């Protein structure tokens, strides 16, 4: 396993743990599901610290004179960035359209007016940012495993 693939795994784990923490804090634990929030927080907290330590070790072992990335790594990075950017830009366009439509239906109490609140839009944008990072790293991991 190359350093770039290890870095992709650790970044994927760290982003996933941040997303789960954020979702638990903002939306809370679902009512119909037994409360395993303390166990989930413990698991993802440990995952966050393990990924953090792995990234620190990878950064500390960087060779200043050697080659860190080759053409294959650049091609895999490009595909990951492309997929993450396409996901993010598509859903931001959908969110902008939704805010526009909610301004048109301002007097009607519907789903559109709930979603157009600035606090909700902020949460959606942050979650979209984390999901695009997960898609970027997931694409990179797919191509590293596929032997691109």
Structural class assignment: mainly alpha
Q: How big a fraction of the residues is strand?
A: under 5%
Rg computed from alpha carbons, rounded to a whole number of angstroms: 19 Å
**Measured distance between first and last alpha carbons:** 14 Å
Largest sheet properties:
none
Low-pLDDT runs: none
Shape: flat
SSE string, helix = H, strand = E?
HHHHH
Average pLDDT rating: 82
Number of domains: 1
Oligomer: single chain
The helix count comes to: 5
Written account of the structure:
It contains 5 helices and no strands. The protein is an all-alpha fold and 148 residues long. The protein has one domain (3-146). The radius of gyration is 19 Å and the shape is flat.
Main traits of this protein?
single chain; 148 residues; mainly alpha
Question: What's a concise summary of this model?
Answer:
The protein contains five helices and no strands. It is mainly alpha-helical and about 150 residues long.
